[in-house]
Model the fold of this input.
Amino acid sequence: MRRPLKVKNRGWIKLHRSILEHPHWMSEPFTRAQAWIDLLLLANHKESHIRKRGVLVVVDRGALGYDERTLAERWKWSRGKVRRFLQELTEEKRINRKISQKTIPKNTSVSACIYILNYEKYQSGDTENSTEDSTEDGTRTRMLKNKKNIYTSDFLTFWAAYPRKIGKQAAFKAWQKNNLPSLDNILQSIGRQKQSDQWKDERFIPHPATWLNQGRWEDEIKVKGDSW
Done:
């Protein structure tokens, strides 16, 4: 019987958030390990804000403004499983759940965020994207890219869900300048519109920037089985 491969702890690697856009990432129910990495990837690398039920919520660096229902849909889990997993992470002191001190009012249950504890340990020097690859002949190459990741985690979640990947920078500008509803509402609208006849042909799917600028999340889309 072959012994399991032992991997020595040789430090850490950087994992680019673009992995969230790969179809394999969301293709199956998540494992617990994948869910943990997903939390790390979704955590804000700089402060931003979202709206949850009309409350303007400040999401600090190292935090993410996702609730159990959204994570359950994303990970293809039950809400009970998500709740138990987050409780495990809390007990292991890997996360905590609290309200940002910058959010007003602070006494609302909808404004609590998930905070990655020791976030800087995972993201030290994150302005430099450094990877180390090995080619088949054993030659190791080091690629240094001094380009900051300009996209916020909530935008990347929108981008991963939106079916037409055109004009990412234009879409991000639209994401920043428009007064958008909550990320949950955006994702629900996209999910519903994906089921419509109009979106079966990619040619009729608006560019993501157009969809955001025109407030197309409010479109009334008829889905098979609806009765109006």
Observations:
- The beta strands are 48-52, 55-59, 63-64, 95-99, 112-116, 129-134, 140-145.
- Residues 17-127 form a domain with the Arc Repressor Mutant, subunit A fold (CATH 1.10.10.10).
